[in-house]
Design a protein that fits this description.
The protein has 307 residues and is of the alpha+beta class. The chain has helices spanning 5-26, 32-42, 59-73, 88-96, 100-109, 153-185; strands spanning 77-80, 83-86, 214-218, 240-242, 247-254, 257-265, 272-273, 284-288, 291-298, 303-306. The strands form 3 sheets. Strands 3, 6, 7 and 8 form a 4-stranded antiparallel beta sheet that branches.
């Protein structure tokens, strides 16, 4: 395996395309998490990459998740609502750039896949091995019935003690139960409690199905305290749901300047919304004079407001 994080990440990006290609051949489908898990299983993390960051995510996994944006930019991968899909060019890239170095160079330089490279076909199934002749099962022998084990004197004594103890318990219970019933029957009836004032009913709050998490992922995440920008997996990027108005909110002090961002759900890029609430759409823009800014996201409409 390669030594640097960058080299390992490039190997895993290529492996992501191989995993998705195999899915096309088999007719199955994997979600983004399963694809990334398989890629990291085939190209394991080094000790440094396995270090957990503040959000509890391995360093190598965070780097790989962010780097998959390069596959999207190259036109080799499409991230959709239902999962990740490899394009024809993505399948052809696994053949056109077979080794890790040429693959990484082409990906970083934006080199198109040569037009004469064909889509790799599914491998031919391996011939089935001839079945060995079945062996005759030996005739079953009826096991001899075991004679019941004789109880030793010690065992007999223990059984007798147990029966005697049970008989004593039953006798005590029979004697005590009538007394308990009599005492209970003589108890005074409870005093009528004063009528409590009726509780004021809380106003009904209209709820709406919400995602597990909503993040603002953009070029100012490091200002919020996250390790890097454009990374929706960190706690520092997460919005908080207001149960009353059903809006997700985050407030932060930002220096004056122009910023761009998107709304990403469930700590990944699988479902994200840009300007005008468009799925995987263009970035939101924020031109800020400096100071506290509050961003609100409405999952019912996918709209955001900033003030």
């Amino acid at each position: 395996m390669a030594k640097s994080i960058a080299d390992n990440t490039d190997l895993r990006l290529k492996t992501v395309l191989h995993v998705l290609t195999e899915g096309v051949w088999s007719g199955g489908s994997l979600n983004a998490g399963e694809v990334l898990a398989e890629a990291t299983a085939r190209v394991p993390f080094s000790e440094h990459e396995a270090t957990l960051l503040s959000g509890g995510i391995p360093r190598g996994h965070k780097t790989l998740t962010s780097a998959t944006a390069k596959l999207v930019k190259a036109g080799w991968l499409v991230k959709g609502r239902s999962g990740w899909t490899i394009t024809d060019d993505g399948m052809r890239a696994t053949v056109a750039f077979p080794d890790a170095d040429s693959f990484a160079t082409a990906l970083d330089a934006g080199t198109p896949v040569p037009a004469d490279v064909a889509i790799p076909p599914a491998p031919a199934p391996a011939p089935a091995a001839k079945a060995a002749p079945a062996k005759k099962a030996p005739a079953k022998r009826t096991p001899a019935k075991k004679a019941p084990a004789k109880r030793t004197p010690a065992k007999k004594a223990a059984d007798a003690v147990g029966k005697a103890a049970k008989a004593i318990e039953d006798a005590i219970e029979d004697a005590v139960e009538p007394v308990v019933k009599a005492v209970r029957s003589r108890k005074a009836a409870p005093k009528t409690a004063a009528k409590a004032a009726p509780k004021a009913e809380a106003p009904a709050v209209e709820t709406f199905p919400q995602p597990e998490a909503v993040a603002v992922a953009g070029d100012f995440n490091t200002i919020l305290g996250a390790p890097e920008n454009w990374a929706p997996q960190y706690d520092e990027a997460q919005l908080t749901l207001d149960a009353l108005d059903q809006l997700w909110k985050i407030s932060a002090d930002l220096p004056a300047g122009s910023y761009t961002f998107k709304i990403a759900l469930n700590r990944s890029w699988d479902e994200n919304y840009g300007a005008f609430g468009t799925f995987d759409g263009p970035n939101h823009e924020l031109h800020h004079d400096g100071g506290t800014v509050t961003i609100r996201y409405d999952h019912r409409t996918r709209d955001i407001t900033i003030n």
